[in-house]
Amino acid sequence: MTQTDPAPLPADLLPADCPVPSVPVLGSRKWAWRIIRCLEDGPRRFSELRVPLAGITAKVLAESLRSMEQDGVLVRTEFDENPPRVEYALTPLGRTLLGPMDAMCAWSRENLAGLLAARAEHERGH
Amino acid sequence: MTQTDPAPLPADLLPADCPVPSVPVLGSRKWAWRIIRCLEDGPRRFSELRVPLAGITAKVLAESLRSMEQDGVLVRTEFDENPPRVEYALTPLGRTLLGPMDAMCAWSRENLAGLLAARAEHERGH
DNA sequence: CTGTATCCTGAAAGATACTG
DNA sequence: CAGTATCTTTCAGGATACAG
């Protein structure tokens, strides 16, 4: 930073192209990615989400949904009925995530097998 | 899990219903995203990486690099010199990540301010 | 049905000291 | 220079029980 390096990697290299260390909303929240996918085709109820998100607990699902609601990528709508009914839907902002996600999903589909193979190879060798 | 799950898949990698639950390599590793960015323009030495990755410890950087090497997205090259010199570079596979990452970075640039505002709003009001 | 309230675990990260 | 070795911390996630 205050040093005089011959050919250093500038400390501001990252902010120029990548403002954040990881992807907001999707980083550091295990289920966020899949939750968004499950809402892609329309609003879903709490219990509806639990089916495709096999294994998720109510607690974690509720936490994830609340967090994502605070980020503005989905909205929670509570209907005054009995039994209670709550729906979650992507916001317009949330929908803008789908494009970038598609790119990442395509990459994963194409390279997941190779990744697993590479890791297995390394584990055998050492 | 105490459940009797008939198909125990790598829960962090393989989807139940959605394409990909999270991004391999980039998910669940805080610094991976930025490390790849730092290698985008060419090989870098260990100490060179520590500059733009301000705050990362040697331990975490080494761990992250090892992990990513095992995934096959980067290679570690050790030169037999004194003082020791080691370079890290993206593999062709690693380079294929840059495209999808660009899409995500663009999204972040465009929406980060809005996200922070939305969260701040939620924390203030409710 | 849609959650909360607790308690617990585990993996990644950070702090610090040391080494070939 | 390029790491390793420990130790501690942190916090998302999971198990379970309970509630409006």
TrEMBL record, chains A, B:
InterPro entries: HTH_HxlR, WH-like_DNA-bd_sf, WH_DNA-bd_sf. Pfam families: HxlR (PF01638). Residues 18-116 form the HTH hxlR-type domain. GO terms for molecular function: DNA binding. Keywords: DNA-binding, Transcription, Transcription regulation. PANTHER family: TRANSCRIPTIONAL REGULATOR, MARR FAMILY, TRANSCRIPTIONAL REGULATORY PROTEIN. This is HxlR family transcriptional regulator. The lineage of its organism: Bacteria, Bacillati, Actinomycetota, Actinomycetes, Kitasatosporales.
